[in-house]
């Protein structure tokens, strides 16, 4: 008999009720809407000045992930974000926002710079996932994602991450470990795409909608599960309907979150961030442990 | 659009199609009695193929007899999403526990290896494909806690298809959580040895398993973020026969060594010696059973309180 | 067996053979009067070719008028090896000083750029191919000292064929010494901006010049460890036309930007703003002229005392 | 008029006397002798146990440079060395001891591990230089050497470097920034090979002997110039004549140097190492500075 807390029971009840199912699929579509604002659309509205930092100092400049020094409300920050393309040529150049290992190495370089010079880090998460190609694998995609996550764990500067579109799996998380994690109302965040989940569990990627209903990649679910700190509202119809208004809402939320992150003493921040993620997860307890061996 | 988590091939190099008996070697077709195979550490005496090893059997292979103490064995998945695909998650969990005798896909604990203490986190692919969910992540962290508290190295042995989709975003967060545990070890100057068994893919290799101070793999193990099938289906690229295999990973700079299973305990003993203080002699490991106490309070996040959940009180 | 230091091509893309006038564009053959070219910041108004710029002229291009103060101008190479090849090193030094009016291949100092203070270390290729010897290394360190002391960013502009062979091992050690200066800036949290002009190769690009927090290059600049001729002669490989050029380096992840010379001052001003504390307004740079004081005593090395040499006392 | 110190005058006189010229060329040949002991020959004699650390976690495992955890007189150290090959196949595999950028990245990984776990670092320098090929250049050879030097500057653990054969240019220095720098009697250490120097300054690589006489890559000259701390004797005829004896002499020297390096307080070591290299260089002073501009 697995004993769980009352809160787990409430969560289960709530999710079993299958409320808001139609919103789930709306969010999946809005998060992927080709007119949705991307990192650079917000950067040009949030920052008064910016200098793009390019290259991983090892192999290439991966344009699926961008890093910059930027001035945000009078202070310098390091901004890191996935970047999708608008037209076909930009999409190809930016690999639809799916970084190779070089993109994550660039992100780590930006984190290291922020740490050394004491600048807060703002990240913008919007990727279907890390690129799953042969070359990416050969150059250590998995290990680089792990090291990117580690570099975000290690930083002592304030970090605010916002999921602004697709928060796809490890490729998203690689830049999403932060003191405060925000998520736009119509963004999604999940361990796998609905199609991928459907292909594996239903053996039919056409069952994506069913998969999405089951695993709930929405901001509401992420908030309920304690994975994000706040949902950032979007203009009616979605962020693409009024990019300036969406940017204003995002700006207010990030600014507030940054103030909260800055209140943590620098010497405590690394440990506090670790503790925040340590608490993520839900489990029960049985009375009888399985037997020891040996 | 990019499925990252992997519906992983069964261990071994068998062709698709016709099921084989688990004790038939997929490489050379030799067949063994269970006791023979177990005695051979599940390495085919004829061709050297490495069969899958369960978590408890792996611990027996590595740890001095009578020294292993499990931690966190009473944790069980709680299914907060009330997840149902073709079957309910709850039913899959029960079936896995019945089949393996384990409460989840990772066994945590501590023990001695040739006299030197170590914390252990050992995965079992037979439990839902070694998938990483909340319990696995917490158990890994408990092993890391032990290592940090007693200043002994952490050793993990992984075999996983990736994150557990049934816990969705909570499963993803276990990547951050386990990497955070490694960060704690790094901050404390405690060594971490990662052993990669076949297969270690998806969220596990993209988090803690890649972050060992020393990373070694078993021969032939598939070690990749996306599995070859996902790569081919998503990108249309062909994958070579050695795609993602331990030997390729060694050549490509991702591993320190490929170590045959029969040499693993010896290599671990050497590493534990190298990681021990100067002139240290192996002695009895007399630390008390771990008592889990409250971690540092998180000054930002009130999730724990809100959910009435979180770190187990021992 | 591997010559690493480079006998570098003259700046520009000219074919070998027939000497051209230095004010004739090697790309489009346009010819300019000296004052025209200087006014155009030595960028060909017709085709955009970037001519070489001397250190003092570069400083004029970048720094607010009247704000530059030189440091370490009295240092001169001392030729401890009494080095003679076809000519004595001493004679080469005299000729270079006569030709350029500089005491060595790098001018150090500090000044303001659009109102914000910075330390500067600017190389001159015309002084013995911008080669790095003891004086160049020490002057770079003096600029870094200033940056560290006053908490202003360090900006370097490099153009170099590499280390100065005539000082052999002491020249090589300038790589360690200048990187050590960058390490000092990093430890102190002082930003460093590296600007790479044509050509930056050998020991200079393999030391401080690659370590800027921001690294930008001028268009077309050759930036490589070994030059194309050495690569071809040593390995037998062919080099492409864009081998080692700034644009290739940007693609290959080694640079943050390729910035045309006319935009350089503006980009530097932006970077100095980004590197300045929150809400900082540019103000007069009223720090006193630097007074060089004794560095930290080196508890190991008695070289200094033995040689009766070392850090200059101001 | 350049004023120089008396010591510079003495150095010049001494070098002008062209004493020991025949030894210079002997050393060049001994340093390159194909029978000369390499890093692994010493490792197996100096260390009681070792575990090789392979790979740069990014691109490949460069066998021209090896790193290992090793037990040295009862304590764990990280050893880093260039490694030439004995037969043709090993030479090719190890690129004649000329690392690509991946080799230096592996060295940096080893330094980072040593730093994190508090192990001293021992390096063995023996390379004609970093590999000057197109691929090495494209993957950032110059920047990686710079970053490797920086990582040795940043470490707070004791470091002892020994030039055991060819100390060739930046490719050697990349692992030779240390608290104590030793050099075997017949090793050479120089900014360029004699052949390279001759090719550039005499326009004739056949003048290598003349170049070597002029730029003096010997241990004696390095000691006189304050670049190394101690010369390590070799058996009569060179280290290859009696490898065990050479290893014994090297062991004594390294052990003593390590003890000296360990005496520097850890909190001071980074700064002290920087100061040590800061002092390298010889210059004079003129009375009249060149005019300021602006
Ligand atoms: Zn078999
Ligand atoms: Zn022109």
The end-to-end span of chain B amounts to: 42 Å
What is the arithmetic mean of pLDDT of chain A?
A: 95
What is the 3D form of chain A?
A: globular
- The CATH superfamily of the largest domain in chain B turns out to be 2-enoyl-CoA Hydratase, Chain A, domain 1
- Note the beta-strand portion of chain A: 15-25%
How would you describe this protein?
With 294 residues, chain A is an alpha/beta fold. Helix content of chain A is 46%, strand content 18%. Chain A has helices at residues 6-16, 21-31, 39-46, 88-93, 101-117, 134-138, 141-154, 169-173, 194-202, 208-215, 219-224, 243-263, 266-278, and strands spanning 49-53, 65-72, 75-82, 121-127, 159-168, 180-184, 188-190, 230-232, 283-285. In chain A, strand 2 (65-72) and strand 3 (75-82) form a beta hairpin. In chain A, helix 3 (39-46) packs across helix 12 (243-263), helix 5 (101-117) runs parallel beside helix 7 (141-154) and helix 9 packs across helix 10 (208-215). The longest helix of chain A has 21 residues, at 243-263. In chain A, 64% of the residues are buried. Chain B is α/β, with parallel strands linked by helices and 314 residues long. Chain B folds into three domains: 20-51, no CATH class; 52-280, 2-enoyl-CoA Hydratase, Chain A, domain 1; 282-314, no CATH class. In chain B, strands 1, 3, 4, 5, 6, 7, 8 and 9 form an eight-stranded mixed β-sheet that branches. In chain B, helix 4 runs parallel beside helix 5. The longest helix of chain B is centred in the middle third of the chain and has 21 residues, at 168-188. Chain B is globular and about 55 Å long. The relative contact order of chain B is 0.13. Residues 1-17 and 284-314 of chain B have low confidence and may be disordered. Chain B binds chain D through residues 186, 189, 191, 210, 213-214, 250-257, 267, 270-271, 273-276, 278-279, and chain D through 49, 51-62, 69-71, 74-76, 102, 106, 113, 116-118. Strand 9 (283-285) of chain A pairs antiparallel with strand 2 of chain B, so a sheet runs across the interface. Bound molecules: zinc ion (2 copies). One zinc ion is lined by residues 25, 27-28, 30, 44, 46-47, 49 of chain B.
């Amino acid at each position: 008999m697995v004993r769980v807390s009352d809160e787990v029971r409430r969560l289960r009840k709530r999710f079993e009720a299958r409320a808001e199912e139609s919103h789930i699929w709306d969010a999946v579509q809005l998060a992927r809407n080709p007119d949705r604002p991307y990192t650079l659309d917000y950067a040009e509205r949030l920052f008064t000045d910016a200098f793009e930092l390019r290259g991983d100092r090892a192999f290439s400049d991966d344009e699926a992930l961008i890093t910059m020094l930027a001035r945000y409300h009078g202070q310098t920050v390091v901004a890191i974000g996935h970047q999708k393309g608008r037209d076909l040529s930009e999409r190809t150049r930016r690999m639809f926002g799916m970084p190779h290992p070089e993109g994550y190495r660039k992100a780590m370089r930006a984190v290291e710079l922020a740490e050394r010079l004491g600048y807060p880090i703002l990240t913008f998460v919007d990727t279907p996932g890390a690129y799953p190609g042969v070359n990416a694998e050969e150059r250590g995609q998995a290990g680089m994602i792990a090291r990117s996550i580690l570099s975000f764990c290690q930083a002592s500067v304030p970090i605010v991450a916002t999921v602004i579109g697709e928060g796809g799996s490890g490729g998203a998380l690689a830049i999403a470990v932060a003191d405060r994690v925000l998520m736009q109302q119509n963004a999604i965040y999940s361990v796998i795409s609905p199609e991928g989940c459907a292909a594996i569990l239903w053996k039919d990627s056409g069952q994506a909608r069913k998969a999405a209903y089951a695993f709930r990649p929405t901001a509401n679910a992420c908030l309920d599960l304690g994975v994000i700190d706040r949902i950032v509202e979007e203009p009616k119809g979605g962020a693409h309907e009024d990019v300036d208004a969406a940017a204003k809402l995002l700006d207010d939320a990030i600014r507030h979150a940054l103030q909260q992150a800055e209140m943590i003493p620098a010497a405590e921040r690394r440990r506090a961030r670790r503790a925040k993620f340590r608490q993520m997860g839900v489990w029960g307890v049985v009375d009888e442990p399985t037997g020891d061996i040996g | 659009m990019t499925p990252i988590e992997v519906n992983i091939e069964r261990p071994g190099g068998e062709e698709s199609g016709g099921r084989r008996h688990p004790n038939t070697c997929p490489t050379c077709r030799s067949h063994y009695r269970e006791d023979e195979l177990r005695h051979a550490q599940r390495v085919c005496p004829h061709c050297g193929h490495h069969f899958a090893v369960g978590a408890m059997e792996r611990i027996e292979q590595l740890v001095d007899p009578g020294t292993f103490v499990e931690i966190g064995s009473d944790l069980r998945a709680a299914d907060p999403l009330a997840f149902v695909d073709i079957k309910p998650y709850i039913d899959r969990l029960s079936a896995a526990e019945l089949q393996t005798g384990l409460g989840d896909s990772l066994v945590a604990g501590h023990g001695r290896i040739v006299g030197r203490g170590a914390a252990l986190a050992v995965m079992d692919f037979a439990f839902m494909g070694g998938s990483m969910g909340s319990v696995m992540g917490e158990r890994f962290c408990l092993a890391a806690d032990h290592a940090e508290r007693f200043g002994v190295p952490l050793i993990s042995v992984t075999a996983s298809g990736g994150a557990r989709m049934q816990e969705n975003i909570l499963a993803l967060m276990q990547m951050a959580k386990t990497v955070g545990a490694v960060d704690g070890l790094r901050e404390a100057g405690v060594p971490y040895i990662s052993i990669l068994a076949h297969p270690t893919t998806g969220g596990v290799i993209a988090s803690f398993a890649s972050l060992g101070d020393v990373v070694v793999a078993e021969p032939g193990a598939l070690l990749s973020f996306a599995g070859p099938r996902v790569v081919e289906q998503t990108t249309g690229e062909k994958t070579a026969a050695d795609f993602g295999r331990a030997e390729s990973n060694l050549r490509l700079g991702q591993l320190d060594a490929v170590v045959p299973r029969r040499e693993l305990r010896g290599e671990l003993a050497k590493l534990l010696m190298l990681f021990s203080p100067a002139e240290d002699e192996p002695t009895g490991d007399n630390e008390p059973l771990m008592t889990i106490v409250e971690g540092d309070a998180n000054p930002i996040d009130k999730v724990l309180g809100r959910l009435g959940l979180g770190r187990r009180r021992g």
